Amino acid sequence: MEFAELIKTPRADNVVLHRPFYLAVEGTLCLTGHHLIFSSRRHDNAEELWLLHSNIDSIEKRFVGSLGTIVIKCKDLRIIQLDIPGMEECLNIASSIEALSTLDSVTLMYPFFYRPMFEIIEDGWSSFLPDQEFELLSSVTDEWRLSCINKDFSVCPSYPPVVIVPKSIDDEALWKVAMFRHGSRFPVLSYYHKKNGMVMMRSSQPLTGTNGRRCKEDEKLINATLRPGKRGYIIDTRSLNVAQQARAKGGGFEQEAHYPQWRRIHKCIERFNILQESLIKLVEACNDQSHNMDRWLSKLEASNWLTHIKEILTAACLAAQCIDREGASVLVHGTEGTDSTLQVTSLAQIILDPRCRTIRGFESLVVREWLQAGHPFQQRCAQSAYSNSKQKWEAPVFLLFLDCVWQILRQFPCSFEFNERFLIMLFEHAYASQFGTFLGNNENERSKLKLPQKTMSLWSWVNSSEELIKFQNPLFEANSLVIWPSVAPQSLQLWEGVFLRWNRPSKFLDEAQEEMINIIKYNKQLQAKVNALRRQIAEMGTAEPML
Description:
- The chain is globular and about 80 Å long.
- The chain has 19 helices and 14 strands.
- Helix content is 39%, strand content 15%.
- By secondary structure, the protein is of the alpha+beta class.
- The strands form 3 sheets. The protein has a 7-stranded antiparallel sheet with strand order 4-3-2-1-7-6-5, with helices on one face. Strands 10-11-14-12-13 form a 5-stranded mixed sheet, with helices on one face. Strands 8-9 form a two-stranded antiparallel ribbon.
């Protein structure tokens, strides 16, 4: 298919662009296969807007006489308005944008056509491989092994080709365990706590069904993570009621009679349409310009967004507490093990492991616990808060995770090497990007699409020196301790950097950030001078007796 077939009107003049907190600008609108490009005519202040079609969530058309207006609502939550003279021209542009923003084929998306303008120092596709992670693990324990049982994705289509499992469990046993777990997602290592040797594993629900079916290999695998005489905890991200109902559909949970050394705790975390509805209500509340305090607070509460944040953080703190304070190993799962499970395992690691609070460590966490672990980004991020055609797979699972990370970052502003801008960038690229990193729903699909060969990795760009500096936290001081975030309602706040970004001017915030960076730079210069003077005094002190 040629993109030209979808573009009925490639260019329109005398178009007026409206955005909140900016003056209206007149210019030329151009449509390409992947971008909507607006160029202003002003010679004194030339301006360009490049918007990926894949970032467009919905468009609305309005007409007053022969003047047409298109309102474009984006997946990154911004809203722009284009006034286009001529009804036919406006209709053509609107239908072209609708067609280009809803392409069916993944291979027609921009990452397959994008050619980087920056120098590639590092291939992001090979930056965070399982072998490298296993090498780090092998330096502290020899109780685990790399299994290639899934090398052709035949055992579990949503798992990566290589997984880390207990050394005492062979591949034949893994195959039997896979048959006993939903979607064949057998328990694999998520995190090893160096301090006490406890581990966190993740999987999907066991297929016990109404007959209480059991799998001795599954019991052996899970028990292989326990120390002699120790108990473990199974954190089920469903309510007890939902877990019991799952048995009627062939699913279920670990029976205490078959897992006597494990205590099961249910921590309900919502999923799918409930989360999507929550996002829609929250964004609607943030866009409400009525300035009525009661209305704003009631709408914010009705969205339940901060309640979901609290539920996720509470479950993650529980997992971290079991490992660090109770000295117990943990298994986390919900139904599929691709959504709430990953929120809990990745947040628990941010709490426990200082490496995950560095830029590269966090990138590695996203690769390991989200991309390789099979979070279906293509399905979950297909639409954002404005789309009119809701399907049942969309859910802001990854955005909620990033919001939880921001809550912890806000409470511990000096413990993270990255800043808020880094988290916002990840949110944007998960929904629309020139890079192939978040395309596909799992490693199997990415392999079939040949993404490493045909597209550029997001990490290649982020880790280039000129970009990396933008994402560094000037307040960062390495903290090797476990950090315990507060999950009290008073401690949780609306993430204004995402949800109010387009609804308020950012000039003063940007200026304050710039001033803070300058103060910190000046402080470092003064500290260097102090250290140099101290060295001079010390040298003078040692030189005196020689006179």
